[in-house]
Amino acid sequence: MDGEESIAMSLIKDSESNSAMRNPQEFKYDNERSFLITNDDKEKSNGSSKTLANSYRSLLAISEDSKEYPNTQDINRSHYMENTTTWLTTLVHVIKGNIGIGALSLPFAMMNSGIVVGPVLLLVTASIAVHCMHLLVQCNHTFLNRTKSLNLGYAQIAEMSIALYYPKARHLGSMIVNILLVITQLGFCCVYFIFVSESLKQIFDDTIQLDVRIWIAILILPTVLLSFIRTLKLLAVISMVSNILYFSGVFCILIYAGDNMQSPETLPKFTGLATVPLAYGAIVFSLEGIGVILPLENVMASPRHFRCVLSIGMGVVVLVYLLLSILGFSSCGMHCLGSFTLNLPNTPYYAAVKGTLAIAIFFTYFIQFYVPMTIIIPSVQEKLDQKYSSLADYGIRTFFVCVTAVLAICVPLLGDMISLVGAVGCTALEIIFPAVIHILTFSYDNSLCTSSLIKNIILIVFGFLGAVSGLYASIIDMIWNIQHPGVPQGAVLFNSSHVSL
């Protein structure tokens, strides 16, 4: 399963209760609320409207009684849940959950930053992203201990962090996170439309010369029909097929990149500040794995080991990204397209590679699409009569498939769309929100030291600057590419300024 696909499947599982209890003697599991409770707790909550599940005001008081409960980092979840994972299984999922279509855009990121500045920017951004993942895990365990839960989701943690200060406004946390998830997932779907259409155009250009917009329009009907799939078992089969196809294709393009490397000395070390935000957006897009972190941590049998597993897994991911970005840029130079696959030669063999990856990404669309539908459809159906429930389901799915297709038709520029989605949606979920949640969580009981507060503020400022500059640069580059098709702005700016280190 590639990166965004793993995120989607994990978000789906995270939104559905998959924690069956084995009823140990000392604790019981409240399946409805995902809470560990004792018999004493039940006696205290009987007849009372304020329970452990909804009394945010008593979170600190609950944490003070933590000796009665196991620490969530020390707990063995296999005693309380079924289908828990080992550290090795979790490590594999962390790696797979962070390597997706964004990895194919990294040579494009290097072209917009330089052979020296690009890898440095990748390492810095990846380090920040991994650190923010650790911040979110730390907040997760804090709230798990305070509420005696076995697992919590990203939106729940955001809600609880706000509830510490403004209980009546707590829904804003989950609402904002869910809105960003919907926007980001639908943004992924737009990227997939463009990727598949660009690939089909290149494959069939010798026989059928159609504009990429026409290919997107052709894909709408089959995409709408397949979007009606609502069975997770069938989606899991689709996921497995796309997984095999994706990694087979990536292996082939790595071989091509290695065989066609240029000397790094012929490449610009720094292409200029104007296009660095484009590189940042593409890099953040490729690192958008924070959505998979909590679902994976929540089913790990020994959560104490998760931080080590996360660090090792992300270290492997960053090494793969460095290899792919440097090899890809070295083989294509200042002519990198939005996806490295679009730079492959038009031979039958590489046409098959492009087709393989196009099929893999097309299948991945429906995994990504499932996530926003689980958020949007129920909220609409609860406002309608039961007899209109199915009609609303199909209507909403059709509408949003068409929305993603129309957006892709309006902006059929793969690299710019990746940078745009990465700079705005991914930056917010991956950098800004974890830092904000960390401040809210640990400032409540004065356990946040000054250095951590300053560091989190720096992360928030970095995220905002990256989002704003990435949005601006993406729009400017879109305008440039519409006015000068086939001429990368980064190459022109570099040739005119000859910036080097």
Automatic annotation (TrEMBL):
The keyword Transmembrane helix applies. It comes from Actinia tenebrosa (Australian red waratah sea anemone). InterPro entries: AA_transpt_TM. Residues 1-27 are annotated as: Disordered. This is Proton-coupled amino acid transporter 1-like. Residues 84-476 form the Amino acid transporter transmembrane domain. It is found in: Membrane. One of its GO terms (cellular component) is vacuolar membrane. It comes from the Eukaryota. The chain crosses the membrane at residues 115-137, 175-196, 212-229, 234-258, 278-296, 308-329, 349-373, 394-414, 420-444, 456-475. Pfam families: Aa_trans. Its main location: membrane. GO terms for molecular function: L-amino acid transmembrane transporter activity. It is a multi-pass membrane protein. Keywords: Membrane, Transmembrane, Transmembrane helix.
